Protein: Bifunctional NAD(P)H-hydrate repair enzyme
Organism: Salegentibacter chungangensis
Amino acid sequence: MKIFSASQLQKADKISIDNQGITSEELMERAATRAFNEIENILDENKTVKLFCGIGNNGGDGLVIARLLKNSGHKAQVYAVNYSDKRSNDFLANNQKLEKMGLKPIVLKAEEDFPKISAEDIVIDAIFGIGLNRGIKGWPAKLVHHINHSGAFTIAIDMPSGLFSDQVPSENDAVIKADLCLTFQGPKLVFFLPQTMDYVNEFKVIDIGLDKQYLESLDSSYEITGRLEAAAIYKPRKKNTHKGNFGHTLIVGGSYGKIGSVILTAKTALKSGAGLCTLYIPKCGYIPAQTAIPEVMVLTDEGEEKLSEIEFDLEPDVICFGMGTGKDLVTKEAFGRLLERTKKPMLVDADGLNILSENKELLESVPKNSVLTPHPKELQRLIGEWKDDFDKVNKVKSFVKKYNLIIVLKGAYTFVFSGEKVFINISGNSGMATAGSGDVLSGVITALLSQGYSPENAARFGVYLHGKAGDLASADIGAEGMISGDIANYMGRAFKTLI
Ligand SMILES: NC(=O)C1=CN([C@@H]2O[C@H](COP(=O)(O)OP(=O)(O)OC[C@H]3O[C@@H](n4cnc5c(N)ncnc54)[C@H](OP(=O)(O)O)[C@@H]3O)[C@@H](O)[C@H]2O)[C@@H](O)CC1
Ligand SMILES: [K+]
């Protein structure tokens, strides 16, 4: 699913009206009716719904929803938030319809007009949508705070009011905190950025039937990776195969006290379909690794406690480097030599990334199309500071183009940057914020690379599977109870959800 900008949606709105031979009021009726159906599904009939409607088209949507609520016997109170006198035509048309039914909106013009909102009420926020073009100021800002402090379950229509679709609000801007956002046609980028995602606890996309052909023709850098997209990437196994078909993965990492990290990566690689897996670790890890996973082969470095040479006599399909290696000079130099020798795309994580950050000249030697999997701190060391999340996204886009790499930026929503594209993953949960979760992710992506998935698909699909396995683990054993090894253990079931 593509993510569109506000201006793309506004244009799609106009084109759909022309192509479908409908009026904008009819499109509003359709959009708001579909939003109303969602609201009605979750509405307890004893609840009072308080609708706050702006005077533009977002407010118009609110008025349609108010009419439909009233028609189906719900308790609805409607407030027109009179932040300006420039009412839109479709607002006016729907205001008239509502008045004819005897439901005249109460006009709010100052703080004294604010109604009481109890925590038991349901609030519909239809003050501003994608037409917001400046921060909310004055008494409307106070109204936003009044709603946020009420404790009422708040449903935002299209966008939480005050949230821009293409910039981070400034510190003093008032923004609705929505428990649920019913958003039209597609999710907005700000729903996924760390600085703005908290304004949208949950969102649901309402298909309002905009022109499909036109939407498909639109360019967008941003795409969602959900179940459908993951299933399209998945290549189920053929019957007549052997372990050689699924590649040989070499996982290089570990140091004294951090052998567990590479063990987790290797275990996950095997549980994600890698045909063969060899671990290359310092000598001290030999017995623990052999004991922990009998299915893995183990090679040891000359170094007792850390990697110092990285020499091996095999031709892996993919190399994964960096978990638990530390950043010692001998390890850095061995990594540098490994990069020089390696031609196929590899995966670099954790201390591998830290070594690259401290020795930027090594970035030139990382094989093209390799996958780097930083968390935000590792990213910052790699690319420097950013002003805000939009700046960060642009900086990462430039970085991946400059070095021809793929970046997997880990977070509540993990972003995969590849060329011009940014894929936003929607599987996963807070239980995955646990030690070793990143080592597991490296294992899945490496295993997919070894099975012949392209680096972009391996990154995108791996991130999805990792999140899905986490969701299955969390459903069974709870977010607090799960550890990284559980994510690895649920990997097979994550694949099965796609069949
Ligand atoms: N496109 C679609 O697919 C469909 C869209 N639909 C709905 O329309 C919504 C967009 O409606 P919209 O364009 O009328 O803008 P909206 O958000 O109501 O704002 C109204 C006006 O407020 C003003 N203004 C802005 N910021 C301000 C501020 N801080 N403080 C004070 N004033 C401010 C600004 O006017 P200005 O004052 O700048 O002239 C702006 O024009 C969309 O979110 C969806 O709900 C559906 O019905 C059908 C399909
Ligand atoms: K809104």
In short: Residues 237 and 246 are 9 Å apart (CA to CA).
